[in-house]
Specification:
The structure holds two protein chains of two kinds. By secondary structure, chain A is mainly alpha-helical. Chain A has 20 helices and four strands. The chains are: A mainly alpha, B mainly alpha. The interface between A and B is large, with 40 and 38 residues.
């Protein structure tokens, strides 16, 4: 079981998607039920995986390594550590939730929609379980296709523009990443005498600083667009706002995390020296993102675009914490990835629920919803507060750890970032005030029905997680910790090595002084 | 030199002879049998029979006709591409010709004869025989382009193709003459052996000859700036013929280029500059022009120019790796490009169709499965994993990176990026058009289903499990190296 569980979790949704193709398209209800059951079983498998996961063990677990395209040393190599574990749990959980949430909102092309959703789930899970760089790339790119359809077919009025922009932005980065991937492949060949895309092996390869910088930039650009780091964020508001609710939830909840995950899994351990060089740049861009995202969120008139811009700000925190390159910062960063998935996912769901009732998302159309929809307003309140990072909610733990880590690394950054927290409170609370408090100014808001059972079922698990992580984050943090420590130690050893080199004038790469001359060209 | 090459040895040309015989037979009986479907089957039997005969020669290099004909894994790999393209085009053609009332029996022998010409081009080690093959291929193609006898566009297509083809042939022959003048032989094997001596003694004529030959083939594979004829010819010709044009003659042109410039004249490293200039021009012009097209056949014409550019990236690197990468890419391209054309054929079989991109509107509502396949082929053309289009590009570009042409690879992937835009536009029209828009139903025939299944399977298998195809492509080598 140990070696099959990852394959099972990753490909079970795909099997479901293939099954769905044979269901007649008129039978909407069977399509929906099957999709939900598949997503739920996938979630159960991932729970099983969670229970089998050894929280204290160091290194990768449930590893599978089967040759795939042996000519290039490409293999079907899966494995997870605590970081990927939590992201997988988030993905499978959110997938179940979006299946339920799309139950009534998707009216045309139901079958295609659920097939795309299941394929998307496989694509996302594949990114998190791959330990082979080629396989990672395949999942990274393949996942664009279902997301493209979800935005483009079932999206809002400007869906086509948003879908194409989403794909083109992502492709631009990925294609440069492909060149870097090829370069890395031949570099590894001249280093080890064979082709391999095994990430764990690639971590050990010393890369001369010059080449490392370029390869890092190619990878970092692809990831930065996905995160998105300011100024590569312009696709995000379009895609989020135009996507259907479920699409926004997945986009914010999981897809953005693929970018940050890429930084942690590939950039930091594989190119530690280049990362160290770019810490100031990325930190400053993240700070700009934090402040800019918050300020732009503040002036939005549409609730959904407010939440979308708040993502830019929150992901800025995630990146800033990561660039602290110490245990607290990285732990906070990983935890905040999960938190953002939960809180922002919940917010998008809530916005979707009100949109289904009123067919508008303009803040000015609402007011006083607390009177007509008390349950809805409570959930909205909780999700917003967790997004702000109020103590006892998940957001607090994540942001606190990030600020702690960043303060250790560079107090100035921490101080600037802290203002982002205040701004978050401003735009969120101001929005809440205008939407759910005050008097009911618009008569249409008086008769609104409160949440039904289905909608409560969607939100309750997220609320439980909000408080669970907020009050007792230990089970999550202890699983992240070994993986994070691993990465920090790789980065630190290269930091000491480069400092030593600075003082002594040796030519060292990483912690290994150069014995191989790694070069490319000449067969 | 092999003993066997000192004689004729007809047996090594059995596949070509068989194909030729079947073609002749169809010509003879064509007027007797009123049942054209039977003739289509006959043509298929010829192509499949030739395929079987060709495959039997795998891994047993032989030469004959006094060394002029060279059967090796390289020629067999390309013959398989030509024959597959021929089979798929024949399957597509029957229903299309019937729908347009031009179901004349000459069509099938023409395809067979053109295929014979291509096979000779790929199997020859002598410039004159390559030229013969080229002519045997070209003349049937000129006729096929003008198969709509009463349609001015099709006539224009045919005449344009003929004039440009004749022009290209002149360049080619002049080039061959110069090489002959420099080397005193047209045998590529001898040119290769004596290359160092030839360069030092008659380098000017050799290089000029090589350039002219390259221009000649540049026309055939539609490299920029020799591509002017492509959009008009592709648009005017009947769609299955266009499909065949976009794959088979291109592959044949590349087979000849590979044989001449990597094997025979492989030592002329300076030509690499010409190849990468051509590659950049071809990719960029093809992709940029494709963006502005409103007719899907024209768009695919420019897209096929761009794909020739990607292959030229590997050519500028040279060496065995480039040959394998180009061969693998052409095989993969055969599947997904013909798949895309099969769907265009379906659309274009409806009466009054001009193959405008807008005719795809609403396809996903009426024919969801067809739309899904269209999306598959477009994503493959754009180079998305897990399709053959991705792995093919991965392999091609890896050769460039291996040789240190990183900047060229960056230009190539940026071109690939541009191409995403116009391929996705097709998907946009097929999927995102409003549901109420009318998509006139297309009539599915079993033959076109078979084509779609073959091409989709090829696109997915070469993408997901490329190892086997990769091994074959790596065995795809010239003998007598």
């Amino acid at each position: 079981m140990e070696d099959r569980i990852l394959t099972l979790v990753t490909f079970f949704p795909l099997i479901g998607a293939v099954l769905l193709m044979f269901v007649p398209k008129e039978r909407d209800d069977s399509v929906k039920s099957i999709a939900l059951i598949i997503a739920f079983i996938t979630f159960l498998f991932s729970l099983m995986m969670y229970s089998m996961f050894d929280p204290v063990a160091n290194g990768m677990q449930f590893e599978v390594n089967i040759p795939w395209i042996s000519t290039f040393g490409i293999s079907y190599h899966l494995g997870i550590d605590g970081i990927s574990l939590l992201l997988i749990m988030l993905t499978t959980l959110l997938s179940v939730i979006v299946m339920i949430s799309s139950w009534n909102s998707v009216k045309s092309g139901v079958k295609g929609y659920f097939i795309s959703m299941l394929m998307l789930e496989t694509g996302m899970l594949g990114v998190f379980v791959s330990l082979d760089l080629f396989l990672f790339y395949v999942f990274w790119e393949a996942m664009l296709i279902p997301m493209y359809f979800i935005i483009g077919v079932w999206g809002g009025p400007r869906k086509i523009y948003a879908a194409i922009k989403f794909v083109l932005f992502t492709m631009f980065g990925s294609l440069l990443m492909l060149v870097a991937l090829l370069y890395l492949m031949f570099m590894y060949h001249s280093f080890a005498g064979e082709y391999s895309f095994n990430m764990i092996e690639l971590y050990k390869m010393p890369i001369p600083l010059g080449a490392q910088t370029y390869i890092f930039l190619a990878f970092a650009l692809a990831f930065a667009i996905k995160v998105p780091i300011w100024p590569f964020h312009t696709w995000l508001p379009d895609a989020h706002v135009q996507a259907p609710t479920a699409g926004s939830v997945i986009l914010a909840g999981v897809l953005l995390k693929m970018g940050t995950y890429g930084f942690i899994r590939i950039c930091l351990p594989m190119f530690p020296e280049a990362t160290l060089q770019f810490v100031p740049l990325i930190s400053i861009l993240s700070l700009i993102g934090i402040i800019y995202g918050a300020l732009v969120a503040m002036v939005q008139r549409d609730i959904k675009s407010l939440v979308a811009y708040s993502s830019v700000s929150h992901l800025g925190f995630v990146m800033l914490g990561m660039m602290a390159l110490n245990v607290q910062g990285l732990e906070g960063s990983v935890l905040q990835m999960i938190n953002h998935g939960i809180s922002t996912g919940a917010l998008f769901l809530i916005v979707g629920m009100i949109y289904e009732r009123r067919h508008t998302r303009m803040i000015s159309d609402f007011g006083g919803l607390a009177k007509s929809m008390p349950v809805f307003s409570t959930f909205f309140m909780i999700a917003s507060l967790s997004s702000i990072g109020l103590p006892l909610t998940n957001g607090f733990v994540g942001e606190f750890l990030i600020l702690l880590g960043v303060y250790k690394a560079n107090p100035v950054y921490a101080i600037i970032a802290a203002t982002g927290v205040i701004l978050a409170a401003c735009y969120m609370l101001w929005m809440l005030q205008r939407v759910i408090f005050g008097k009911i100014t618009n008569p249409e808001n008086e008769k609104l029905k409160d949440l039904d059972l289905r909608e409560k079922i969607i939100l309750i698990p997220l609320v439980i997680l909000i408080f669970w992580i907020g009050i007792y984050p230990k089970p999550f943090l202890e699983r992240i910790e070994p993986a994070v420590k691993n990465i920090v130690s790789i980065v630190n050893s290269s930091r000491t090595a480069s400092e030593a080199r600075m003082s002594k004038g040796y030519k060292c790469v990483g912690d290994r002084c150069d014995t191989h001359t790694v070069s490319i060209g000449g067969n | 030199m092999d003993i066997k090459s000192a004689a004729i040895f007809f047996d090594i040309l059995y596949p070509e002879i068989f194909l030729l015989a079947v073609g002749m037979f169809i010509l003879v009986v064509g007027n007797i049998f009123k049942n054209r479907t039977f003739l289509a089957y006959l043509a298929l039997v010829g192509l499949i029979g030739a395929l079987v005969l060709t495959l039997q020669q795998w891994n047993a290099p032989q030469s004959g006709f006094y060394g002029m004909v060279q059967i090796d894994n390289f020629s067999i790999f390309f013959n398989v591409i030509f024959l597959s393209a021929g089979i798929i085009a024949t399957l597509m053609a029957r229903d299309y010709l019937r729908a347009h009332n031009i179901e004349r029996f000459e069509f099938y022998p023409l395809i067979l004869f053109a295929t014979v010409g291509m096979m000779i081009m790929a199997s020859s080690a002598d410039l004159i025989v390559i030229f013969l093959g080229l002519e045997i291929m070209s003349i049937p193609l000129y006729v096929m382009a003008g198969f709509f006898r009463n349609d001015p566009n099709s006539n224009e297509s045919s005449v344009k193709y003929f004039i440009m083809g004749a022009f290209a042939t002149a360049f080619l022959l002049y080039g061959i003459a110069l090489i002959y003048g420099a080397a005193g032989t047209t045998d590529l094997r001898r040119i290769m052996t004596d290359l160092g001596y030839l360069v030092s003694h008659s380098g000017f004529f050799l290089y000029s000859g090589a350039l002219l030959v390259l221009i000649g083939f540049g026309f055939k594979v539609a490299a920029v700036p020799f591509h002017m004829w492509v959009p008009d010819v592709y648009q005017g010709a009947p769609t299955p013929v266009t499909a065949y044009f976009s794959v088979a003659p291109k592959a044949a042109g590349f087979a000849a280029i590979l044989r001449i410039f990597i094997y025979g004249l492989g030592g002329l490293n300076e030509l690499s500059v010409i190849f990468w200039i051509l590659a950049i021009l071809t990719m960029s012009v093809g992709n940029l022009m494709a963006i502005f097209q409103t007719n899907i056949k024209r768009m695919l014409a420019y897209s096929s120019i761009a794909h020739a550019g990607y292959i030229m990236v590997a050519l500028s690197v040279g060496g065995d790796g480039a040959v394998s990468a180009a061969a693998f890419y052409l095989l993969a391209y055969t599947f997904f490009n013909l798949g895309g054309f099969a769907i265009v054929t379906l659309i274009n079989s409806r009466t009054g169709s001009t193959a405008a991109i807008d005719e795809m509107k609403g396809m996903s509502v009426r024919h969801p499965f067809l739309a899904a396949l269209l999306a598959l082929f477009m994503f493959a053309l754009a180079g998305f994993p897990p399709t053959a289009g991705f792995f093919g590009k991965f392999y091609l570009f890896s050769e460039a990176v291996k040789a240190g042409y990183i900047w060229l690879t960056v230009i190539a992937v940026m071109n690939s990026f541009v191409s995403v835009y116009y391929y996705l536009r097709i998907v946009v029209v097929a999927y995102f058009g409003k549901a109420d828009e009318e998509f006139a139903p297309v009539s599915f025939k079993p033959a076109i289903w078979l084509v779609l299944v073959i091409t989709a399977a090829g696109t997915l298998i070469l993408g997901l499990l490329p190892q086997f195809g990769l091994q074959l492509a790596q065995m795809c080598m010239f003998s007598f190296k």
